[in-house]
Design goal:
four-stranded antiparallel sheet; mainly alpha; 15 helices; three-stranded mixed sheet; 71% helix; flat; 491 residues
Length: 491
């Protein structure tokens, strides 16, 4: 039993590791490894619980802050689980604390936690598969958060201009100019964040908005609350999405006033700098060498001018021939480049055609073919009119554009099929998670049923000539069975 107690006491730490830190893409990949490790630990505990031979059902006492001093009277033994981090989050994951929890209930909760790990891994995979999203997350990781940037700009308003020290004054002016630029950027970021979080129903867009808000501090997806809203941690705080939206609205209400104050400070500074100083008029000093220098320069200037005139007449004949030589050289290079581009375009066309023989093919193959056709078209478009391959290039261009259009349409179809399959998979994970987190709630089961229906509809939209159709067909049978089962339970 000691071994089992030790394992169960590790639960808060393990459950806390089932979180997805959003930051650099490299960090996300490391998180997937950690999540997998946490799930393996949970399965190990679950196996230990199943294999334990007990006469009575033991009880585990979960403490929110301190170990319970008086264990339950009906418990054969007590396992103390200490608060690991974030008391609110621990309560959300374990339930109301402190409480006596039977090991059977621990098993059920472990199922929920494992499903949660699957869900955040699916989210991580979606993030890493979107190149533009990954790039933006990496950019956000190099910038301060909205609150930190806002505070830094506000500090500039406290500057007391030092007009007597030019070097310090110059630094202050630069600070004011930078603060003005930063305040305008904050306004743009707030609009972007607000649109992505509040207006969008796409999870990845929402996460992109949160990332822009948190900046280099990053954030982590921790859990779902009772209303299935994401619980997010960042900068030492636990927040729901609603809290971040409220913060955005707070800063949006203040940003216009801040921009106005910074602009006013800059105008005030510029006025002080442009204030005219008393001019001091001085008589020009007499320079006895000035007249001598002027005479000397005039004398030698005449000699230099005559020499230049002779040289320019001699080189005029040479310069007259240069444009013709340059034109001949240009025409030769243009012809050579045109022939090379035409041959390269032909090779790309052959490669693109070979790639898509004997379909169906994965999405990446169609995308590679599309890219090759596009590159070939660009090469042909750059061939000049006055070259020997110009006419042939035009004929090829018509054909290649036609092929590119066909392949591009195929890419769209395959991409939609893949997205539908991934969407169905995520919906299935969510449906399972809902049921296991609240198995006796009628409203939750209704939500789960709706999720299964959405997943089924998504799979049915996948065309039979796509690469993922066979996988979708097999998955559909499983999802339909789950839908029928939950429908029976609701009846």
């Amino acid at each position: 039993m000691a071994d089992l107690e030790t394992l169960v006491n590790e639960l808060p730490k393990i459950v806390h590791s089932l979180r997805l830190n959003i930051g650099h893409s490299h960090d996300i990949m490391q998180q997937i490894v950690m999540i997998n490790h946490g799930q393996d630990q949970l399965r190990n505990i679950q196996e230990k619980v199943k294999s334990s031979q007990l006469k009575k059902s033991p009880t585990t006492t979960v403490a929110s802050l301190y170990p319970v001093q008086k264990p339950s009277k009906n418990a054969d033994y007590t396992v103390y689980i200490y608060k690991y981090d974030y008391p609110g989050l621990l309560t959300a994951k374990f339930g109301k604390l402190p409480a006596d929890i039977a090991l059977k209930e621990i098993q059920a909760k472990i199922d929920v936690w494992i499903d949660w790990g699957d869900l955040i891994q699916a989210i991580a995979a979606d993030i890493l598969s979107d190149i533009n999203l990954v790039q933006q997350l990496n950019i956000d990781a190099n910038h301060d958060s909205i609150p930190a940037t806002f505070q830094a700009v506000e500090e500039v308003l406290k500057i007391q201009l030092d007009l007597d020290k030019p070097r310090i004054l110059q630094q202050q002016i630069q600070q004011i100019i930078q603060a003005q630029e930063d305040s305008l950027k904050i306004k743009e970021r707030l609009e972007f964040i607000f649109d992505n979080i509040k207006q969008s129903h796409n999870l990845l867009s929402i996460l992109l908005g949160v990332s822009s808000f948190c900046g280099k501090y990053g954030f982590a997806i921790e859990w779902l609350d009772d209303d299935q809203e994401l619980i997010i941690s960042g900068d030492g705080r636990l927040q729901e999405l609603t809290d971040i939206i409220n913060d955005c609205e707070f800063y949006q209400n203040k940003i216009d006033s801040l921009i106005l104050q910074i602009s006013s400070l800059r105008v005030k500074t510029e006025k002080k700098l442009l204030k005219p100083k008393s001019e001091q008029w001085k008589l020009p000093k007499y320079n006895p060498l000035k007249k001598f220098k002027e005479q000397t320069l005039t004398h030698y200037g005449g000699i230099i001018a005559a020499s230049l005139l002779a040289l320019s007449f001699g080189s005029w004949m040479i310069k007259a021939e240069i444009p013709q030589l340059q034109q001949i050289h240009f025409n030769f290079n243009q012809e050579e480049t045109a022939i090379a581009n035409f041959k390269a375009a032909q090779n790309l066309g052959l490669e693109a055609s070979a790639l898509v023989q004997s379909p169906p093919h994965p999405l990446i193959v169609w995308q590679q073919a599309e890219s090759k056709w596009q590159e070939a078209i660009k090469l042909l478009e750059n061939i000049s009119e006055n070259t020997s391959v110009s006419t042939r290039a035009k004929d090829k261009l018509i054909t290649y554009r036609f092929y590119h259009t066909i392949i591009s349409q195929k890419v769209i179809v395959e991409k939609k099929a893949v997205n539908n399959l991934e969407t169905a998979h995520k919906l299935a994970i969510e449906a399972n998670f809902f049921i296991q987190s609240s198995p006796h709630s009628f409203s939750v089961r209704e939500k789960a049923k709706d999720k299964w229906q959405q997943a089924i509809n998504s799979l049915k939209e996948i065309p039979d000539n796509t690469f993922v159709y066979q996988q979708a067909k097999e998955t559909l049978l499983n999802y339909q069975a789950n839908y029928r089962e939950i429908s029976k339970n609701l009846e």
